[in-house]
Amino acid sequence: ETNVAGEPRHIEAVGLTAGIINGNGRIYPVAGVRAAVAELRRHLNESAGQGRLLLGEAEHPSDKGGRPNLLETVVRWESVDFDETELQVTLRGALLETSKGRDIQALLEGGVMPDVSQRGYGDSRKVRVDGRAVEEITALTITGYDLVLEGADPFAGVTIFEAQGDETMGEVDEKQGEVKPAGGDGDIRAI
User: pLDDT averaged over the chain?
Assistant: First the structure.
């Protein structure tokens, strides 16, 4: 699938890995993430404009002093799923051609693949895992997935981006950490 000038380019990403202790000292249990994604999907698929938009900003709003800002929006996530094999939230969305979205596009084209960080709210409790104090998320409502320089989840990030015109998709070679072309036919390739 190739893109026409002026239309959003599509990206795919991993939004969160369940069942691991992330860099923020949090663990998101599999059942809780699965339920939060199912709830989010119900709202994304409501008809007649009643559904919620799932957006992503350039960096977290909290890292920029507060609330989400419409003009910081760079991605409209169109689908969200829970991969039962990898225990990951997977995302597909449109990279928006806002001023910051074009900056993200330039970074992607230059081989800089941003991390992805989940935004949400809920409840948690302190638990000990292998002698370490960890914040276990006990209830979760997902509100967004932002593109960030350094995310807490070591596996969350942009995995595929759509190139312009006759170019093809790019993929992240996870072993090498670099962008590689996906092939000559422009199809989306899984990594």
Answer: 82
